[in-house]
Amino acid sequence: xxxxxxxHLDATSARLRxxxxxxxxxxxxxxxxxIVPHPDLAILSPRxxxxxxxxxxxxxxxVAIFSGRMLDDLRVRVPVTGLFLSGIAGxxxxxxxxxxxxxxxxxxxxxASMRETMRGWCERFEGAWVxxxxxxxxxxxxxxxxxxxxxxCSGVRRRFAGMxxxxxxxxxxKVFDVLPAVNRxxxxxxxxxxxxxxxxxxxxxxxxxxxxxxxxxxREKGGITVAVGRWSSHAEYGLVAPGHVTWFLExxxxxxxxxxxxxxxxxxxxxxxxxxxxxxxAQPEPERVPEPSRSSEG
Length: 298
Description:
By secondary structure, this protein is α/β, with parallel strands linked by helices. It contains ten helices and 13 strands.
């Protein structure tokens, strides 16, 4: 049973005081943005982007985004500099120095014939389609009429039966991710990013099946795990929706300033505020994300 995060802010604040650094890792779709009918429609809101930037610019803090999207797509949708990024569920990474890595060898790639087989299967179901992700691909069926979705899913599983040595099939929210059978996931990418987990308070926010492998190792290393929009998970805490993640990041930025209590932090806050108010260019007004009521979380 997940604990509602809003009811444990005092405990969270106490954990922040134990170590000198703050590391915040977030999934993208369903965590920082709402789930939408098509991946192209997902947009990071100005308020959420500002919340990410506020945390990333704090002294002693860092932010990373771990997504099932391709890295090039993720970079466009999260226009914030200085972040660690991971795409295709850990198969691609871009570190803070700008070094890009693909963690799949040529001999580990999915046979091209399987892509064509699954394109043919999707063509049999109105609303199903294949998303090419370079070394991987995804089978989307959100647009398939609900009465046909069980048949679609059953057929996908049959076509990949007995191919565990070549393919890893991951079932998410109305999508199958078809990945090379390599020992690599979001947790692998997370440890590429974190080099000293004993000296940081690590948060991980996720919402889907490919986030589940991250929760247990993060918890074992003393981190804080948060599942978004789901209440059956290996995470420790839960939040209702992406808007609540934005609200929490804003709270976290304020709390880290208090916990740090440094003149450097206060000076940086003043500098960022002055930059945001400088010039004649009007800043976009962030949309309102209502603060959650405790009754809805209990």
